[in-house]
Design a protein that fits this description.
alpha/beta, Isoleucyl-tRNA Synthetase, Domain 1, 6-stranded parallel β-sheet, 4-stranded antiparallel β-sheet, 16 strands
């Protein structure tokens, strides 16, 4: 059976207000999905919401509503943003869905039957904000809020039993945790004995969760529940053919702050359940303002909705993909955003389209001219477009999205230089045939650049391709049809002031 490219975002916490970090991860997944749909076809893109746990229960209680109603009210904040960002996800899962509850209970029962769950009394420190037990060292670090002492019976997952197996898997599969420094971080973490994982909460203090199938006095720990979303949506136990085509996932895209849950909790859970591990867990960095992580307390959170309203969705998508090296932190500034927009999009990309179409409308009755026989100049551009296609494919496969974008833009800049050198606006007065060849070449190169950039900017590139009456998604030279009538268009990227 042919395998799909299966990519997931983190399962976002329903109480969060979507910010630039949420937008970045989801756009990144969208770009990779769109590129793979164009290049290889079968693709499945999942995102969704984590809706259980103590914080949700407490938030609902303060509002005087049932937790599910609270979640139903909060969920549209994410779905509305994804719609506004033109996210092309194939599924949107909520952990309160019956399909998910069913799978969580099945996995819990399998792990229990395999002898990997036991009941024990635990006494220690509990972080309400993180909804988990913590060590004395973690408490002293100052990274945890709302810490209190708890003594209670709970169920534990024998995570420690899979420590050596996990280490072996990481070492045998270099791409399992990416980038490399995150892999080393997890291997460093695994040098110390791994504690077993408390996977239950007594209903006496928390009833908003999925009930344990083997003890109705307890609900499932929110992370054990949430992580399972990746196989629920893939058809585990509900659609055998779908699951075989999707699993293992190609990429789990996550923020670096949830690396341990995904790179330790999740694979050990899968090992116990006898399910193959995902191919790659990729942890990206944070968006910073100045030198600080964006946070509510600092008041430096960027609202992606405001950015889109002010500048348009495609420029926002372009900036976020171009500015961050995937896996490292990046600094958001409005100055750098404006510079990227005006330099890359308005001057290089949009201006080239305007030049080409204006000259064709004025001198060729708005019809794509015949290039005739290509000279050495044009053949060189054609050759570079073919090389660019191969290079971009490799860079995206290596998760070097920003480098892929820069290579495309450098190609566009070189086409602008070709236009400057040949000056078809002057040439057309004396040699209309050769001027037509220059304009066809520049237009075709621009078309290929637009196709390659379309996963990043699906809307403005579509306008460009439509304006050129061209083949939408062909990477091969010759997509402009000689004699095709150009369509009128407004400025693609009006300069920002």
């Amino acid at each position: 059976m042919k395998k799909h490219f299966y990519i997931t975002t983190p399962i976002y916490y329903v109480n969060d207000k979507p910010h630039i970090g949420h937008a970045y991860t989801t756009i990144l997944a969208d770009v990779l999905s769109r590129y793979n749909r164009q290049s290889q076809g079968d693709t499945f893109f999942l995102t969704g919401l984590d809706e259980h746990g103590q914080k949700v229960q407490e938030a609902a209680s303060k509002l005087g509503v049932e937790p599910k109603k609270h979640c139903d009210t909060m969920a549209p904040r994410f779905t509305s943003l994804w719609e506004k960002l033109h996210i092309s996800n194939d599924d949107f899962i909520r952990t309160t869905e019956e399909r998910h509850k069913k799978v969580v209970k099945e996995i819990l029962q399998i792990v229990m039957d395999n002898g990997d769950i036991y009941e024990a009394e635990y006494e220690g420190l509990y972080s309400v904000s993180e909804e988990r037990f913590i060590t004395e060292k973690e408490a002293d670090s100052g990274a945890f809020r709302d810490i209190k002492k708890l003594k209670e019976k709970n169920y534990f997952f024998k995570m420690s039993a899979y420590q050596e197996q996990l280490i072996k898997h990481i070492n045998s599969n270099p791409n399992f945790i990416q980038p490399n420094h995150r892999k080393n971080e997890i291997l460093g973490f695994l040098k110390k004995p791994l504690n077993d994982l408390c996977i239950s909460r007594p209903k006496s203090r928390l009833n908003w969760g999925i009930e344990l199938p083997f003890d109705d006095k307890y609900v499932t720990y929110v992370w054990f529940d949430a992580l399972i979303n990746y196989i629920t949506a893939a058809g585990y136990s509900s659609d055998k053919n779908l699951f075989q085509s999707l699993w293992p996932a190609s990429y789990h895209l996550i923020g670096k702050d949830i690396l341990t849950t995904h790179a330790v909790y999740w694979p050990t859970m899968l090992m116990s359940a006898g399910i193959e591990l995902p191919k790659s867990i990729f942890a990206h960095g944070w968006w910073l303002m100045g030198d600080s992580k964006m946070s509510k307390s600092l008041g430096n959170i960027i609202n992606p909705m405001d950015l889109i309203d002010n500048y348009g969705v495609d420029p926002v998508r372009y900036y976020l993909m171009r500015e961050m090296v995937v896996g490292q932190d990046a600094n958001f500034t409005f100055d750098s955003f404006m510079q990227r927009y005006n330099s890359d999009l308005a001057n290089d990309f949009g201006n080239l389209l305007s030049r080409v179409t204006t000259l064709i409308h004025k001198n060729y009755a708005g019809e794509i001219p015949d290039p005739g026989e290509l000279s050495e100049q044009e053949l060189s551009i054609k050759s570079k477009s073919e090389e660019l296609n191969i290079l971009v494919k490799k860079l995206i496969g290596d998760m070097k999205i920003n480098e892929a974008i820069e290579e495309i833009m450098q190609f566009i800049r070189n086409v602008n230089k070709y236009m400057e050198k040949n000056a078809p606006w002057k040439m057309v007065k004396e040699d209309k045939e050769n001027a037509g060849r220059v304009l066809y070449t520049a237009g075709e190169a621009l078309r290929i650049g637009a196709v390659l950039l379309s996963p990043v900017m699906p809307n403005r590139t579509l306008i460009l391709l439509d304006a050129l009456s061209s083949e939408k998604y062909s990477y091969h030279w010759g997509g402009l049809s000689i004699g095709a009538k150009l369509k009128k268009h407004s400025p693609l990227f009006p300069r920002l002031k």
